Amino acid sequence: MPRKPGEQFIKRKIRQTNKIYNKSRPKRDRLYYSSQWKQISMLYRKQHPLCEECERNGIITPADLVDHIIAVNDGGNMWEWENLQSLCMNCHNKKHSKG
Ligand SMILES: [Zn+2]
Questions:
Q1: Which of 29, 47, 97, 99 is the most exposed place for a label (fewest CB within 10 A)?
Q2: Residues whose CB is under 5 A from ligand 1 (ion)?
Q3: Rounded to whole angstroms, how far apart are CA atoms 60 and 72?
Q4: Ligand 1 centre and the CA of 96: distance in Å?
C-alpha cells in the first residue's frame, strides 16, 4: 500500500518551519534595528517623551529609549503598544541589571 499522499509533504513543511524558526531565533536582536521597530519606538516616544519610571517617582526625566515591560525574550510582544514604556538610560540599566 502506498504511503498517504501529503504525509511526506507535511513532514517536510514542519522541518522547514522549524528550520526557519531556529534560524530566526538568534536574529531576534536584529528586530531592534528594523525600520518597523524604529518607527513604532519613535511614535511611542513622541507620545511618551518622559521616562515613565521616573515619572512614577515624581521626577521629570527625558526618555532615552523605549523598553518592553515584558521582555521579548520572556514572551512579551515586541509590537504591543501596552507592552512599551519610555525609560531613561538610568532606569533601563536599573531594570535590566536586576535579576
Ligand atoms: Zn528614569
A1: 99
A2: 51, 53-54, 61, 88, 91
A3: 27
A4: 13
pLDDT tens by residue, 38-62: 999 999 999 999 999 999 999 999 9
Q: Which three cell numbers stand for residue 19?
A: 528550520
Cell digits for 54?
521616573
50: helix, strand or coil: strand
Cell of 86: 519610555
1 CA distance to ligand 1 middle (Å): 68
Question: Is the whole model's pTM more than 0.85, yes or no?
Answer: no
pLDDT of 7 reads 78
